[in-house]
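User: I'm writing a short methods note and want a consistent example. For PTS system transcriptional activator, I'll paste the sequence; you return only the structure tokens, no commentary, since I'll be parsing the reply automatically.
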Amino acid sequence: MMTRKEKVFIALKNLSSDVSAAKIAEDLSFGFDAETISKVTEIDRSNVSRELNELVRENKAIKIIGRPVKFFAKSCLEEILQIKYEGDGVIEDVNNFLHNTNFANDELNTKENDPFARIIGETGSLELAIKQAKAAILYPPRGLHTLITGPTGVGKTTFAEVMYQYAIYNGNISKDAELIVFNCSEYADNPQLILSQLFGYVKGAFTGANQDKAGLIESADGGILLLDEIHRLPPEAQEMLFLLMDKGIYRRLGETDKYHTASILIIGATTENLNSVLLQTFLRRIPMTINLPSLEDRPLNERLEFIETFFMSEASNVKVPIRIHKDVIRAFLLYDCYGNIGQLKGDIQLLCARGFLDYKTYNKKEIEINIHLLPEHIYSGLLSRHKDYSEVFELLEYGKDYYIYKPDDKKLAETINLNSFDVSDNLYKEITKKYNHYLNIGFSNDKISEIINNDIIKYLKKLLKKYDHNTEKALLDKNELFKIINPKVYNAAETALILAEQKLNKHFSNRAIIGLAMHISALMERIADKSLIYYEEINKIALNNPSEFKVAKMIREVLQQELGISIPTGEIGFLTMFLSAVDTGDDYSKIGVIVLAHGEATATSIADVANTLLATEHCKAIDMPLDMKVDNALEKTIEMVKKVDEGKGVLLLVDMGSLTAFAEIITQKANVLTKSIENISTPIVIEAVRKSLLPEMTLSVLVEDLNRANPYIGRIISGDIKNRVNISSSKTILTTCISGMGAAVKIAQLLKNTLNFVDEYNVKIQPVNKAENLDNILDKNGYDDVIAVVGTVDLHIPQVPFIPIDELIIGDGVRKLEKSITGSNNYIKSKKQSEENVFINMLEELLTFLNPIKAYNVVNDSYTATIKLLGIKDSARIKSRYIFHNCCMIERLIQNDILPYNNIDELIQKKMSIYEKVKLSLANIEEAFGITVPDTEIGYIIDLLDTQ
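Assistant:
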């Protein structure tokens, strides 16, 4: 019986034998990807890929690196190229390889010199357009006049420039001939001016014509005239071009006694419907029409080429390597790019500008582009259920998390991008100039980033204005807002208030949407902090406002659905209060905040820090020198309270308990509700100011929030001084997962979100792939630097504690890590949450797009079925690992990202009974999410259950 590898090899050999030398010379490529061979053999793609790589190792096949990776039968390649292949079986660069074999040099040189050969899509989406263009240039005697059509940003002007280069390359026009570009829209409102620019004029032709002047047609004689936005060419100009196009002669404006001759090929470019904007008699004189497709209509592999070329270009511009996370590339492949290639290039330029700012600010070795830099309209690509989503995973290299583009990348010079639009040729120069200026005058890095980010946003708005797309502009107007509010939360709040408007018959302003979004953000923080407390006053409001109460229940459901969170029923009171009290206009009142502290400038310094970090001037300060009398301090405070009160009361933040008496006295004397918090610190002031700016916040709630936070806010930041002595010495936390690096990375990200003080303590969180890259890490850091291993695989490093994922989720793993890092035992015991809420909160952090509530419920049911079928005793450790692993697995399978598993067939045969029961217990997961769990993934689940 034929083995699977033999079937794959026969298929590869049959496909390879059909390829001719002429075919290779035509498109300079060859080979077949695993998907193609999978279809031929009807063998699973992952298995085909495995067998192909094995054939390469056996010296029977050649592997050609690219996207996708391709393979070719070695014997067939040797026969076609008439060579004896002596390489290692992997071809990195096809062009270099073919050159080194001296294969078809004439064909290769001809191909490489052809300007069209460097256009992205030459053998793909632009194949027909290029054939038309070549035919138009080569048609005797002077070529065919041509119209290039397509939406804004597809590269019509650049395509015309390549036609000009091709005409010189083929000798149809001389090397000295010019390409004259004229934008018809610039003079569309003045037909006489267009005629004079194109045809020239004689002295006296119109007022101000004091001497004869040649036009652009004379300059273009012997070459090509490109009329950009030709639909703006007035009928008079079209008619005057008739004679030139028919007989090669023309007259200047105002000329009646003679003709001039010119041999010109005319190319027009337009976004409009030709029949509705140009005279039919004019159109009949332009026999060739070339339509360029939009970016959306082009295949994803071409879009990837554009993305990579633009990143290479930016690396070349700034002379710095650019390191890009694969999810950034994925987002660019999938987002709605309405402005086509032009917008894609502009978006990449501006993203690189932001990365360049970080590179300058933090003195990095390279520009780093991660998903947190992505504007919302690009980030949305990661959330889309695009029809080509699975193809993206085929294009991007498996297991490669980052792509690096260097300034000297040779591929850049070989590519024509069909777009020459730059947001600003001096963008990086301006950023550098401003950065150095503000640094020299003493601005902090955070402040410099804020200033320059505003400039980048202006560039972005300018870019989007060019494409004039309302949806994009609306998103960008919120760009500043999205720095402090998660876009997902904002959009959920907007949806909820649209419903509320319909039900309550009133209009909520954009400021009201922001207020609700900030409220929901605070709620999510309280859920994470396990500090949900509700008050009697809120229940009274709910009872006294039946209409708002009813709507509050509805929008709670909307928010739960949109955000995938579980909102406690007690929150309905809060939402009722919001709907009842929120200002529907553009302004809202805020709680006043005043810092009072002893010393010459203590209060002022603390207030300045809070105002600077929060980009506000809301926090006021009263400094109290030690010789200031209490009565004088009180009077000064009363005056300031009256001044800052906006109707919601004033909070006094004082450094000594004796000043708390001021609040009650001021309430009585000034008739302004005033409360105080004592023993304040800078973190407390920052938190107080931040929450005082929330539209829904009341003074009593703010005081309660701060009193709860006061014992521990900033405790990790301050720590114990003696533990700071060795802070310059870096420490490492390793994260592991049984299913490999991907899940270990997720655990690492979870820790970074949970332990947001790790950078201050110089702690690195490093994912490891089981023990495979452990030696490399330990070679760099040594055992002494590793303070903990967190995850599902214990690496058994001597004297290093292992914290299982279950302890992190439902135990005291976080407290153990805090103690290891800070040396502090200071830990505030929080109110106990239900197991379900703990898991859901954790999955909210871990999952990218799945609804964590649905994921938890479905996987938990599967877990229950699994332990019953296998007769395993329920335990927190097994459950947490099962839920964590399978939720991550679901996301991967939806994205068609399947983990390999060595010797899976052998494992199944050995543990057939366990395999069958696990497979049965996964049925509800497959049905709920529309996926099929492959055997390789089941292998990891068996390992997970079998190693407890």
